[in-house]
Amino acid sequence: MTVSIRPFDPSKDSGLIHPWVTHPKASYWMMQGASLQEVEREYTAITAHPHHHAFIGLVDGVPSFLMESYDPTELELVGLYDPLPGDVGMHFLVAPTDTPVHGFTRTVITAVMAELFADPATARVVVEPDVANKAVHALNEAVGFVAEREIQKPEKKALLSFCTRADFEAAVAVAA
After folding, report:
1. DSSP H helical ranges for 83-126
2. Cα gap 58→61, rounded to integer Å
3. Among 33, 71, 76, 128, which is most buried by a count of CB atoms within 10 Å?
4. Is 88 helix (H, G, I), strand (E, B) or coil?
């Protein structure tokens, strides 16, 4: 599988991701019931924000996942943990499918992490998935994340987890 990642374009990509973010399997994305206009408005705000970025991931040329990166000293985790220089926050969502491919989501999260660590300024990736999202906890662990503790965000109870560059490289080497 060949994975590529490009910047999100709200005017052309909101219609693409609307069925992804509103799908029942995307319940942790918290956009169930959102209209196309609401999704476009949300992603227009994200792409305009200086500390939040959105991307579309393509697998073999087909749009297949959504990726977000953010500065946790400015968004999402402000006041909830002690950030270190080089921390980058991340979210990802794989497009729903009726024909799942074994290992696909692991390929996606590995590509997302590789993209984030391609920036030499990234020292550690921070995630805060819902504590109930056991599937993503397992994926995070597979690419090197270490859970630190539960935190209470306004919208959810989250599992604060970190992945250093060394932890990611070690996890990828084991998987290879």
Report:
1. 104-117
2. 5
3. 128
4. strand
